[in-house]
Amino acid sequence: MPIPQDRIRNFCIIAHVDHGKSTLADRILQVTGAVDERNMKEQTLDTMDIERERGITIKSVAVRLEYTARDGETYALNLIDTPGHVDFSYEVSRSLAACEGALLLVDAAQGVEAQTLANAYKAIEQDLEIIPVINKIDLPGADVDAVRRQITEVIGLDGDAAIPASAKEGTGTLDILEAIVAQVPPPKGDREAPLRALIFDAKYDSYRGVIVYVRVMEGRAARGQRVLFMSTDDRYEISELGVFVPEARPMETLEAGEAGYIICSIKTLRSVKIGDTVTDALKPAPGRLPGYKEVQPVVFCGLYPAVDTDFQELRDALERLQLNDASFVFQADSSDALGLGFRLGFLGLLHMEIIQERLEREFDLTLVTTAPNVAYEVHLTTGEKLTIENASKMPPAAHIERVEEPYIEAEIICPTEYLSGVIELCKKKRGIHSRVDYIDGKRCMAVYEMPLAEMVLDFYDRLKTLTRGYGSLEYRLIGYRPGNLVKLDILLNGEPVDALSCIVHRDRAEWVGRTLASRLRKLIPRQQFEIAIQAAIGQRVLVRETVKAVRKNVTAKCYGGDITRKRKLLEKQREGKRRMKQVGNVEVPQEAFMALLSVQDEPER
Hints:
The chain has five domains: 5-183, Rossmann fold (3-Layer(aba) Sandwich); 196-280, Translation factors (Elongation Factor Tu (Ef-tu), domain 3), CATH 2.40.30; 299-369, Elongation Factor G (Translational Gtpase), domain 3 (Alpha-Beta Plaits); 377-483, 2-Layer Sandwich (Alpha-Beta Plaits); 486-601, Alpha-Beta Plaits, CATH 3.30.70.2570. Helices cover 27% and strands 33% of the residues. The protein is built from 15 helices and 31 strands. The strands form six sheets. An eight-stranded antiparallel beta sheet has the order 11-10-16-7-8-15-12-13.
């Protein structure tokens, strides 16, 4: 029998990285009896190996819990555990769209951080009921009163109403559940109206096809019902539906206000789009649900199979992975140096690492990755505007009027004692100072505008090192601005290697070229002929390094005698090497394509 709509609560947990979301989810599962004590483990909802190894949540997980409140009523709580890292903010926004309330966790020792603020604003935009929770009150450095003041002054919520808790020890968990029941509004939606369900996630199962995760907004979905996917106009019959508790539990119906899964034996991945609306095929709803904003990738890289014959396998793997993570985009690409592959767009560098690792682990692929870069807008002398995601596609300098690069507004929260170091770092990265806000006597927020290209590679790591792990970062794109940018080509024996080309600021071009050529000289193995490594802007060569040829001592058999005999042998060897250089191929190892990344990591001297 379906639970009445007024006793359903849909909520998610949002917070900064490592503020205890997954641990609190564990305690909630434990208190509601959703997981057996003997099956209980840390990070129960983090099911991927990569999540457990790194100690971070990558995928949102929806789970249904039954809780008997102090008023004696039994409530169905649909919990969604969300990621905290800035690279997975798209995952968070999708989860928020399926909820009516959010638990906002704040670390009792760290206080309000950059992602705390960003996620709180996302929840406010979605008009969710926010319940602030001060977690980790068991830590020696916990200062609950100071954090209450920060919640009031920085976020603008009622800090006095924040619930003190320790997810590790289980303190405050019952108070949190009671607050969810009391404060989070029940879902709206007419159960007698035609079915409208929002697809908020999906995954591919080799045996059952695509498993679609939905939040039913109106009407009801039932087993055996014919449904229509509105954006693709495909029709299927529901063979199974149910909820996660956290294992899948089949049900007869999913009513308005409930979140769960449906299986329709869908074999083609193109039938399912995240944000699409599922409706009744016989009595369709009049219109689609709003869905989600299109994702805007900010970091791009090339991904090529190490073995050419794996190209189709890589395409299939990317299509399956995109079903489970709609926040990256890909398109076919080719490179003279690396052959056929794909150009991928990500939300950040960590996002890129995770996707690459999942492709290698889950689909058993060996991949070659080029150094990441951002998209530039190139205005030509003809008045045309191009978006360049790959440096090798840059038009000749004579045809370019100006190049514009993406700028971001970065909010950096750190202890006041590290502010001077943060300012120095932002200056090096061509940052423009906006303002500094003091949160309290110990912490401040520096706001800078800076080019995304300067920030995307190593800025976060350097910030963490500089602030001894206490610095936090949140950023958003603010548009494109003109920059003095040039395309730096790397040539091997006069031939440009497209995968090693990069777009850099003119002031740093010679330094980047010199460092990269020097790095490549050590990485490229010696051949039987000399290899010239050059860094050039257009026709102007800035730097040259040489990989010496492997030499055989052809005069070893000559003991004394006429010198002309030795000269003849050396001349014959030189001629052979000259011919070999014309037809020989330079083997470029995988490490060379990532050399650009380590060049950007080095501080400029």
